[in-house]
TrEMBL record:
GO MF annotations in UniProt: hydrolase activity, acting on carbon-nitrogen (but not peptide) bonds, in linear amides
Organism ancestry: Bacteria, Bacillati, Actinomycetota, Actinomycetes, Micrococcales
Keyword Nucleotidyltransferase: no
SUPFAM superfamilies for the chain: LmbE-like
Transmembrane segments: 307-328, 334-354, 361-380, 400-418
Keyword terms, alphabetized: Membrane, Transmembrane, Transmembrane helix, Zinc
Provenance organism: Rothia koreensis
Protein name per the record: 1D-myo-inositol 2-acetamido-2-deoxy-alpha-D-glucopyranoside deacetylase
A biological-process GO annotation: glycoside metabolic process
Presence of the UniProt keyword Cell division in the record: no
Length: 428
């Protein structure tokens, strides 16, 4: 956020009050009703360091504590910001020379953002990257208009966010969404909250990015931080209650930009006092009709079919794996158990397939369980059985032990992968 501190005879700068209006039918969550926070991935897209804390800090920390993966994309480093206090006063945009692009302030604000992200529980953070030089989007700056509303700065750099082609900033956002595959994206509403040009541009770029995504990368819901309250706005509203104390601590990490008071208030360099709100409101900007929005129970196999499928896959995997697990290539002084590797990959593949077919967490262990039982039968049903030889003194016996124990390991790995990919949109 960049806020000139002197507004002279102009009206006092306008900032909307967070969650000033709550619609009677407002939701209390940004997640689809069927999505457990522990299996959710959320991507917050903001314009500058500090925006994530001041605008959505309570929401981000709320979902991080609930177990969601909370990621953050910041479009610029806030190079055009003013500075509070004397410690870094020389970095203030008002005191720099015309040829100073603000890289030093941007670097400092990066460190502030790192501290805020730790406080909010952010999993991953990125700055938006552009393909052409300088490789990033610079802060556009802003000024206050005669009505106390944010407007464009007269000294915006040629490589700033608002002067870059919209398709470039949208592509930068789309690349991150494709990588993260979030269930929910949170950015700004069309007014950018209080009108900052970079906030508006971030909204435009986010909406354009949605049209660049592959079908599988489409988020289920896209929310915008609500600006000035409008009771006549008929879009779906969500009001999230979080922890104001955590939000305040994260805001305080941005010491060059935000000064928090003894109570629950803060101000920017223009000394306009604002409340630190635990409630943050949003308006729905877009929603996906992707099949993943359907009730997970409609996609899942029934319990009986899940058991039958899991048992069948396990017995087939156990038999085939046993047949070639002992395929070994011998060399001078060492051997390569390539058959064991293929057998274990077969177990992992069977586990993942069952996870996809049944959509049930407990069913993912069935292939490994039945394969393990089957191999136990091979080993102990007949004392002279040569199918699996658990003998640590010879290579084939060592491979036999690894095959038995490896089934359990592959099953655990398969379940871990499933819980973070295939099953993440299911309620626990």
């Amino acid at each position: 956020m960049t806020t000139p501190s002197t507004h002279g005879s102009h009206p006092e700068p306008f900032y909307p009050e967070q969650a000033e209006y709550t619609a009677p039918d407002a939701l209390a969550s940004l997640l689809p009703e069927s999505l457990d926070p522990r299996h959710a991935t959320m991507l917050f897209i903001h314009a500058h360091p500090d925006d994530e804390s001041t605008s959505t800090g309570a929401t981000m920390s709320h979902y991080a504590r609930a177990g969601a993966a909370v990621d953050l994309l910041t479009m610029s480093r806030g190079e055009m910001g003013e500075v509070i206090g004397e410690r870094h006063a020389d970095l203030d945009v008002r005191k720099r020379s015309d040829d100073d692009s603000g890289d030093a302030l941007g670097a400092l604000r990066e460190t502030e953002l790192e501290a805020a992200c730790r406080e909010l529980g952010v999993r991953n953070h990125w700055f938006a990257e552009r393909r052409r030089s300088p490789g990033y989007f610079r802060d556009s700056g802003m000024s206050w208009g005669k009505h106390g509303r944010a407007t464009s700065a007269t000294n915006a750099a040629s490589d700033c966010l608002t002067r870059a082609p919209l398709k470039e900033s949208a592509a930068a956002i789309a690349r991150v969404i494709e990588k993260v595959r979030p269930d929910v994206v949170v950015s700004y509403d069309v007014d950018g909250g209080y009108g900052h040009p970079d906030h508006r541009r971030t909204h435009e770029a986010t909406m354009k990015a949605l049209g660049m995504l592959s079908r599988k990368a489409q988020p289920l819901l896209v929310w915008g931080v609500e600006g000035e309250a409008d009771p006549d706005d008929d879009r779906r509203q969500a009001v999230v209650e979080g922890d104001a104390a955590t939000k305040k601590t994260a805001m305080a990490a941005h010491e060059t930009q935000v000064e928090v008071g003894d109570g629950m208030t803060f101000h920017y360099s223009n000394n306009v006092e604002q409340n630190i709100s635990a409630a943050e409101s949003y308006r729905l900007l877009a929603e996906s009709i992707d099949v993943s929005q359907e009730d997970p129970e409609d996609l899942a196999a029934g319990p009986v079919n899940s058991v039958i499928a899991g048992a069948g896959v396990g017995l087939v995997v156990g038999f085939i794996g046993t047949m070639f697990h002992a395929s070994i290539s011998y060399f001078s002084g060492w051997y390569l158990p390539w058959g064991l590797g293929l057998a274990l990959l077969l177990v992992l593949s069977g586990t993942l397939w069952i996870s996809h077919y049944t959509r049930r967490t407990w069913a993912t262990v069935l292939p490994g369980l039945f394969a393990f039982i089957e191999i136990g039968f091979f080993v102990y049903a007949r004392s002279d059985s040569l199918l699996v030889i658990p003998n640590p003194k010879v290579p084939i016996g060592q491979v036999g032990i690894a095959w038995i124990l490896g089934i359990l390991v592959m099953t655990m790995i398969g379940q871990w992968i499933s819980n973070r990919t295939i099953l993440k949109s299911r309620n626990a």
